[in-house]
User: Fold these one by one.
Assistant:
Number 1:
Amino acid sequence: MNTPTPVLRLENIVKTFPGVRALDGVSLSVLPGEVHALMGENGAGKSTLMKVLGGIHQPDEGQVIVNERPVVMNGPLEAKALGIVFIHQELSLAEELSVAENVYLGELPTKGFGRVDWHELYQKTDAILAKLKVGFDAKTLVKDLSIANQQMVEIARALTVEAKVVIFDEPTASLTDAEKRVLFDVISDLQANDVGVVYISHRMEEIFKITDRISVLRDGQYQGSVATKDTDEEGVTQMMIGRKLDLTRKESNHELGKIALEVRNLSSGKAFNDVSFQVRSGEVVGFYGLVGAGRTEIAETLFGLRNKSSGEILLNGEVIDVKSPRDAIEKGISLVPEDRKGQGLVLGMNCRDNMTLPQVDDITAGPFVAEGAEIAIFDQYRDSLDIRTPGWKQDVGNLSGGNQQKIVIAKWLSMKPNVLIVDEPTRGIDVGSKSEIHKLLRKLASKGLAVIVISSEMPEVMHVSDRIVAMYSGRVTRTFECGEVTEDNLVQAISGVSKLA
Amino acid sequence: MKSINVKVLLKASPIWIFILFELVFFSVAGSYLSLSDKAFMDVDNMLLLLKQSAPIGIIAMGMAIIMINGNIDLSVGATFAIAAIVLLETMSSPMFEGLGDWVIPIAWGAALLVGTLLGAINGLIAWKTGVDAFIVTLGSMLGFRGLVFMFNGENPTSHLNWTLVDFAEAQFLGLHTATWFLLVVTAAIWYLMNRTVHGRNAYAIGNNREAAVNAGIRVGPHMMINFMLIGFLAALSAVVFYSESGSVNPNDGQLYELWIITAVVLGGTKLTGGSGSILSTLGGVIAIQLLRKGLGHIGADTSTVNLVIGSILILVLFLDRQINIKGREELKV
C-alpha cells in the first residue's frame, strides 16, 4: 500500500443526544489533496459528524486523529488551531459588521491592550478577497452584500489559516455559476496544497465533477466509501436510501382545463419586473432560477404578502387585487412557503391542529371549536396524502420532513384552493420522500388544481412540471413546454446567457 | 430632489437633527410662552443641561453596550442607589475619621467596587444559568432595591463633604465636573466599542449569536464584562451626582432604567442587539434632557412632560421604520 497518511481520521465516533443515537460508530479518513464527498439523507448524521470535526460537539466514544495524533477539541477555535476549518451551510455572519471583521470573526488581529489592528485586518482580508476575485472590499458591510456574496465571505474564512482540512457544508446553495467556478478553483488550489477537503452536498452533478471519493452515511451509520470514478448517481443513491429510486415520469394524460391564473406584466419594485405567465387548471408550472431571481417574490405578491408596483393578476379570467394573505385564501390562492419549519408549521402543535389552523374560526360548534369536524378533516387528508403519523395527537415536530411537508400541503388543500403555489417543496427532505411529494403534486394537478412549483433543483422542476418558466434577475427569460426543455437550455436561460444570444 | 436629501440626512444622523429641531422649537415657542425672560438657548442654560444629562448619560453609555451585546439591564437604578449609600456611609464612617479628605478616594473606590460587583452578579447569573438578562435584572432590580430599604428604612442617608461639593461644582473650560465625566466616559466607551476586540465581539454577539459561537467567541465572558462595566458606570454616575447633593433617598434612581433605555433607543440602538452607536446614544441622552427642560421652559408640568416624551419615543421609532423601509414593495409583516 502506498497511500499517503490521512490528514484526518475518525475512528468509531459515537454521539448520542437524548433519545437519538445520531452517530453510531462512524469512521472516515481524509487524505491530503483529496476532495472527499460526504453524502446522506437529511438526518443521516452528516451535520453532527461535521460538528464533531469542527469542535462544536465532543464525541461520546471514538477518536479524532489529526496527522496520526489523537486530539480532543473543545470549541471551534481549537479545531481551527489544528487546521480544521468549517465553512457553514447557513450564513453564519454578523451582518452589521464589515466583511473583514466577519472573515476574522473570533480572532481579530490585535496590537496590544486588546486593540484591533485594523490595518493588518483590512490588508489580510483584501488579499484573500483578491484571490476569490469578488467585487467588494474588506470594509464593506455584510448587510450591503447579496446572499451569494455573503456566501463568498463565508468561504473566505477558509483561507485565513494554514488549513489542513476544510469542510464545506452545502457551499453552492446560493451561488451563481460564475461564483461556483471561483469556488471550485479555490478548492483545487487547496487540493494542490495538499489540503484535505470534505465536501457536503446534495447536488450530484457537483459531487461527480469535483470529488475523488464519496462516503455515505445512513441513519448515523457509516455505509462505506467509494472512489467517485467507480460509481454513479444510481449507486450513490442506493447507498444513501438502501433501495433504488423510481425517477421515471409518466406523461400527464389528463385534459388541461381553462386558464386558472394569469399574470400580465407584473412588477414589484426591484424584486421582479414585467412578468407574464398563465397557469391552467390541471397543470403544474415550474419556476426555475437562481436564488434571488425573483421567484419567491412573485409567489409572495400573488399571495398578498407583497405589493405589486404595476401589472395585473387575473383569477379565472377576472382581474383581482390581492391585499393580504387572508384575501388570497378567500379568493382561492394558497401558498406553501419555502421555510417549512419557520413559516409553515407550529412545530409544538399536533398534526390535526396544524392542519386546521387557517380555518379554525369556521369549524365551530357554538363558541367552541368542533373537534369532530377537525378530526374528520385530518382523517381525510391523512388518507388521501398518505401521511404517516401515529395519530392526530402527534406533535408535528416529531414527524419526518416529508410528512411535515404533507401536513402543510394538507393544511392548504383543506382550504379548497384553485391555485396552489408550492415554494421549494422538497427542501431538506430526503430523496425517498421527495419522489412521493412529486407524485402528490402531479396527482393534485390531475384532479384539476392549478399548481405552481418554485424550485432551485433542476431535476425536480424537470420531473414535476408541465411547463417551466425560467427566470433570471427578476425577469422571465423563457417559458419551456414539456418537450423542448433540456438541462443545457434551462441552465442557459437561468444564467442569463440565452438573453444575450 | 429635496425630499430625498432630507431622507438621506435623516438616515445619517437622525438624533442630531431631532436635537436641532428641539432647540429651534423651544427657542421660538419659549419666546412666546416662557415666563422667564431668559432665552432658552442661553449659554448657562445649555451648560446646566449638559450637567443634568450626566447622571443618566453615564449609565446610558453602559446600557448601549449591554443592548448592542443583545441584553438589557433593568437593575441600574437600584445599583445607582446602593452605590450612593456606600459612598455616603463610607465618608461618614467613624472608621475613617482620622483621614480627613483622604476618605474621598476610599469612599469613591468602595462605591465603584460595589457597583462593579453588583454588575458582576447580574452577569454571572445570566451567564451560568442561561436565564434571559431581562428576567435576571428584573429580579435584581427588585432585590437591590430591597437592600436599599433594608439598610436605612425609609430614611435618607446623608453626608456632605465640602471639598467634594467644591469639586463637583467646579467648572473647567466652562464645563461642569459632571459634564466632563460624561464626555470622558463617552469617549472611553466609544473607543472600547469601535477599536477593541471586546467591543467588536460584543457587536458580533448581539448581531448573530450563533455565528459568534461558531467562530469560537466565548459569549459568556463578554457578557460578564459588559455587566460589570454597566455596574461600574451606574456607581460612577452615583459618585458624581451625590458628591454634590450629599443625600440619598431610598427611592432615588427609580425609573432610571426606563429613562436610560428610552435614551439609548432614541439614539438608534436596536432592542434586538447588534447595532447601535455610542455617539448617537449621547445624542439620545441630550435629546431627552432637552425635552424635559424645554417643556418645563414653556410651562408644561411633569405629567405632561412624561406624556410627550412617551409619545415622541413611539413616533420616532415609527418614523425610523418608515425611513428605513426599502419601499412599498417590501414584504409585509
Number 2:
Amino acid sequence: MFKKRLYLLFLLWGVTFGLLALLPEGYASNHVMLVMLSLVLMVFFRTKINFLIVLSTIIIYGFGLTIYAQMEDIFSGGQYILIAAHLLLTASLLSLWLIVHDVKSLVEENKSLEERIGLLEKFDWNTKALSMPEFMERGLLIETAMRRRSEKGRLIYFNVKDSVPLTARDSLRHYFINTCLHTVREEFDLVTSPSQSEVFVFLQGTNTEGEAIVIERLKDKLREYVNYIELPYHITSYEIGNLKKIMEQFDHQRGA
Amino acid sequence: MNIVLLLIMTFFWTLLVFYSVLTLAGVYFRAKKQQPIKLETYPSVSVLIPAHNEEIVIEDTLHAMAKLDYPGELNIYLLDDGSSDRTPEIGKSFQEAFSRIHYISVPPGEPKGKSRVLNYGLSIIESEYFLVYDADNQPEPDAVKFLVEKAETTPKAAGAVGYVKTRNADKNLLTQMIALEFQVFQLLMQSGRWQLLKLGSLAGTNMLLRKDIIDKLGKYDVYALAEDAELTIRLTAEGYLLPVVPASKTWEQEPETIKTFIKQRTRWLIGNLYLLEKLFLSSKFWRKKAFHHSIQHLTVYLLFAVLLLFSHLFFIGSLFDLFEPTYAAPILMLWFMSYIVYTGQLIGAIVMDRTVSPLKVTVALIMYFTYAQLFVILLGRSAVIYVWKRIVKRETIKWDKTNRFKNRPI
C-alpha cells in the first residue's frame, strides 16, 4: 500500500513536470528552479515546516503571477495560462512534499524500530553476551533476591589495556567474552560488553575468594590462545550492594 | 463607476493579502515546538456549564468533567436554566457521586440566554479563574491544566483560549465542513493573530478567564447573543491578552442537519450584527488592540457584505447587458487566488492537525463553492431578521438554543 502510494506520487510528480512542456517558454525554467529550491529546503526541515515552505511558495508565486498579469495587461483569456501554470506548480510541490514526508517517515520509523529492537534484544548478536538493558534487568532482579537471602555478589569490570593494538581489539574482545561465558556458571552469572573495550561479569552468591578463582580460571583459559603473559585487561571489582549506582558511575565516567 | 470598482478591488486585494499572511503565521505558530510549562502552585478554577434541556448530551459531558485532571482546586458547576427534561436528575446524580461537581438551579429571569446564566454562575463562585464549557462539550483531561499554565505565564493575560474540535465530524458532509471551518477559523487564524499581533479571541467554550477582571468589566452583556466576541473586544480594549493554547482540546457537537445549522449560525450572525451596532455607538470598542478586532468585524460583517452585494449586482447587470464592463485588472487571477488562499487555509489546518485523508482534502477542495457561499445567504437572512425585530419592532432578540444529537464515541 505504502509502496503503491509512493509510486503514484512519483507518477504525479512526473506528469506535472511533463505537462510543463505544454506551457509557453520561461515557465518551465521558473518551475524547475522553484521546485529544486523547495526540495533542498525540505531536506533540512520537519514535515510541518516543509508544509509552510510549500504553502508560502504557492501563495507568493500566485501573487507574483497576478502582479505580472497586471503589469503586462493580461486581462482576458491569457489569464488561463497563468492559472494552469500555477496549478501545475501547486500539484508538483504538493506531491513532492508528500514524497519527502513519506521518505522521512520511513527513516524515522526505521530509527525508532532500531531503538526498540535495541531495548528488546536480549543478546549481542556477535558475541552472545547479554545486551546491556537485559544485563541490568536481570542483575537488579538477582540483586534483590540475594539481598533477601542475605547473600553477597561481585561485579568484575574488565577494561582493555592501551598496549593492545587497536586492530586486534575487536577479535580479542570476541574471544575474551566467549571465554568469560565458558568460565562463569551458565544460567547463574551474567556477562555483558557495552563497548569494544569493556566487559562486565556479574557473579551471584560469590565472595572475593570465589571472584579470585574465576579470574584465575579465566587467565588460564585465555593463555591457551592468547600470547599475552599478563591479562590484557585492567581488572576492577566491586561488592554488589547497589548495582544501579555502580553502573551509573561508569556511565558518568564514559560521558566525561 | 470605475472608482467604485477600484475600491472593491483594493478592498478584496487587501483582505486576500492579509489572510494569506495570517495563514502562514498560523501554520508557523502551530508547527513550532511549544515548551512545556510547569507551575509551582496551581490557582483555583471553577468550570461553568450553562445548560437548558440537555438530557441528550449532559451525561457524557459530566463524565468528561469528572475525568478532568488538574493539580489545583477545581469545582464544576452545572448551571441549569430551568430545564424541564432529565437534566436536573442527571446533574444531581453526579453531584451525589462527586464532591467537586455541583448542580445549581439558576433562578428564572429575563432576558433568556447564556450570558445571564453565566453572570449568575459568576455571582456564586470565589475561585481565581473560571472556565466556560458548553453543555455538549467533552474536554480532554489536561485541557484545564494547559489553559491555566499559559494564562499564568503570559504577562497581562486575562485568561487563555483553547481548541474546539468536532466530535461528530464523520457524520455527514455538513459536519465534515463545519469541522474543517473550526480547524481554520477557530484555531489556525487564531494562532496566526496571536503569532503576529498577540491577539486572541474567546470561542464561547473552552475559554479560561480571571474572575476579578470580568467582575471589574461588569460581567457579561446579557443582550449579546455572540457574548464571546463582545467580551473579547471589551477585554482587548482594556489592554488584556488572550493567549491561544492549541494543546488544550475540547470536543463538541456540531449541527448535523441544515435546519439546525441555519438556526445556530443565524443566532451567531445576529449576535455579530448586535456587536457591529455597538461598534458604531461606543468609542471604547476602538481602544488599544481592540481596534484590530473592531476593524476586522467591520470589514467582515459590513464592508465585505456590502461590496460583495455590489460585486453581485455588477455581475448580474453585465449578464443582462446593463453594464459594459471594461477590465482594467486581472479579475480571474484575483478570484483564482481567493480560491487558493481559502483552500490553502483548509489544507494547512488539516496538516497541522495531522488528520490528512483523501476525503478531507476533497472536502477542502469543494468548500469554497459550497459551504463558503452559505455565509452570504445566512448573513442576508440574519440582517433581515435583525432589522425587522430590533429596529422596526424594537423587540429583544431571544436566545435560540442549538438542537443536540445523541453522542457517538469520539
